[in-house]
Amino acid sequence: MIKLVALDLDDTTLDSESKISSRTAATIRAAMAQGVTVTLATGRMYRSALPFALELGLDVPLITYHGALVKTSLGHEVLYHRPVPLDLASYVLAFASKRRFDINLYMDDQVYVREDNRHIEDYIKLSKVPYCKVADLNAVLCTEPDKILIIDEEAKLDGLARDLKEMVGSRLHITKSKPYFLEITHPEAQKGIALATLATKLGIDRSQVMAVGDSYNDLDMLEYAGIGVAMGNARTEIKDRADFITLSNNEHGVAEAFKRFVLSAEYTASLEV
């Protein structure tokens, strides 16, 4: 029986308008009423994920920044924190800046950028958080960042990722959350590791865990969970490594996964009345 569910946000729990459908929300709440712990596991900042947690009534630790920060939604207690070491962060900033990539730097739940452009405008529209514009990101790098996000065309990011992995790959976790988002975190800042840490704290075996996601940064948690569910809108390489493929995020795919693997017949019937 599933006791813990971890949900990615973008393109998974959220539809194409970045909203949680009423059907998905009702299904999640039904699972919580049944005694299941539901959390969010997202690459988003804590402050960007928190409104969705409050909307759903989640009073649990949230997995944010791909697992770099696990923090409770109400008491704001930090359970797990793995920021990027300063020397590596400085190296990545210099390496990517020299190649003229757009970079987001995250420290203390604040995002710093070098300039206003289409990339940052699209990001802010998605995340709904303010940002700080600075001329030199290295100049404000005063504390270990939770992550570094590099935004560009997928082919360019794939080349950058290969170069970074050759030089510092063993010391950093480098993945994509969207085709145009390259995410760089501490090697222990992964959704799967954070989810395992949370499950252990709650005394829940991995066989009793379900994880739902759509992208590369979800793979490790899909593989950790007893049931790893890929969204219908996920890429083929993600679906190939999942235990089950549900409907798309615009077809209430999360709700379908809950109905199939989590909810009792009684709760499922009550949702269909």
Which secondary structure elements does this structure contain, and how are they paired or packed?
Elements: E1 4-7, H1 9-13, H2 22-33, E2 37-40, H3 46-56, E3 61-64, E4 69-72, E5 78-81, H4 86-98, E6 102-107, E7 110-113, H5 118-127, E8 132-133, E9 147-151, H6 154-168, E10 173-178, E11 181-185, H7 191-202, E12 209-213, H8 219-224, E13 227-230, H9 236-239, E14 244-245, H10 253-261, H11 265-272
Parallel strand pairs: 1-2, 1-12, 7-8, 12-13, 13-14
Antiparallel strand pairs: 3-4, 4-5, 6-7, 6-9, 9-11, 10-11
What does this molecule look like?
The protein is an alpha/beta fold and 273 residues long. The protein has two domains: 4-81 and 189-272, HAD superfamily/HAD-like (Rossmann fold), CATH 3.40.50; 86-185, 2-Layer Sandwich (Hypothetical Protein, Haloacid Dehalogenase-like Hydrolase, Chain: A, domain 2), CATH 3.30.1240.10. 38% of the residues lie in helices and 22% in strands. It is built from eleven helices and 14 strands. It has helices at 9-13, 22-33, 46-56, 86-98, 118-127, 154-168, 191-202, 219-224, 236-239, 253-261, 265-272; strands at 4-7, 37-40, 61-64, 69-72, 78-81, 102-107, 110-113, 132-133, 147-151, 173-178, 181-185, 209-213, 227-230, 244-245. The chain has a six-stranded mixed beta sheet with strand order 8-7-6-9-11-10, with helices on one face. The chain has a five-stranded parallel beta sheet with strand order 2-1-12-13-14. The mean pLDDT is 94.
